[in-house]
Amino acid sequence: SSKTMPLNTERAAAMRLALAGKTGWAVGLDYRGEQVLAAYEMIPELQAGLVAKLDISEIRAPFIKAAGVAASIAIAIILLGTLFVLRVAKPIARRLEETEQRLDLTIRGSGDGLWDYDLASGELWYSDRFRELLGYHDEKEFPNVVASWSDRLHHDDRKSTLDAFTSHLERGTPYDVEYRLKTRNGDYRWFRARGKSLRDQSGRAYRAAGSITDITGSRQ
Question: What is the pTM of this model?
Fold first, then answer.
C-alpha cells in the first residue's frame, strides 16, 4: 500500500520495533485499523524494517468454518437420535401401558389385597384393594408402614404370624398363613396371606411381596 503514517502511532508499532533492530511477532492494528498478526525484522543491509502481516480474521476463518460444520453435524445427530428414540420408545411405551392395564385388571379381578415391601429401604406399598378389605379408603387412614398391618393383627394370631414372616425372610420357609385383622369398624375378619421374597447372591432377602385373601366366609 502507498498509504503512509507517522511512526509514533499505535498502528506503526511493529515497524518501530523492526527499525529498533528487534525481531519477533505481535498482535496489533495495521494501517487500516484491522487486527493483524505481524512479524517484524530489521534488514541491516538496507537499513530498513520489514513487517509482514496476516489478518486475524483470515486465521480465524478455518476454525469458524470447522465449528460451523461440527455444529451442523451435532444438530443432525441430535435430530436423528430424537427420531430414533421416538420410533423405538413409542411402541415400548404402548406395550408398557398395555401391561399396566392388564395388571390392573388382574388385581381388580382377583379380589386380593396386594403388598410389596422393599426391605433395604423400608418402603412398603399396599394396593387400594388391601385397604378396601379392611374398610379403609386412602393412605391417610392406612399409611404405607408395617405397623398399619401388624398393629391390626388379632392378639392370638400376632406372634405366630410375625414368626412365620421372619422365618420366611431368614430361612426361606414358605409364607402361607391365616390370621385375623381388625377392620375400620372394629370387628375382625379372617385372611389367608401368601408371599415370596427376592434374594441376593448371599441368600439374603431384599424384597418381599404377596397378597391377602378374605376367607372369613369359609372359616365360619
Answer: 0.54
